[in-house]
Write a structure and sequence with these properties.
Length: 119
Amino acid sequence: MSRINKHSKVISLRRNFELGGFRLINFIHLGVESEQVRRWRNDEGIRKWMYSDHVISKKEHLRFIEGLKKDRKNYFWRVEDQSGGIGVISLNKIDVKNKNAYLGIYANPNCPKKGAGEN
């Protein structure tokens, strides 16, 4: 489902978001950044934690993004700040009826920033 309705507030999960100085760009709206995301995903330090830990080809990555255009349960965003791409965040297996989903997150392995989420 591409929309979640909570107390009459509807949120389209296919769109891009601006949150506290961060920009979240839905994978279906990525241009050349799509290849950067694929390289992050294929980094050994990230890939080893994925459900599917093989190296993703360009063709496979493009098929995945095409599939997201029809998918109503999985959403992925490239996260960036003023310095550029810093990682990926996703909501997966969204279950509107039971009001839950899985959260996925990984950092750009080449990002010099450390300590995200720390005070």
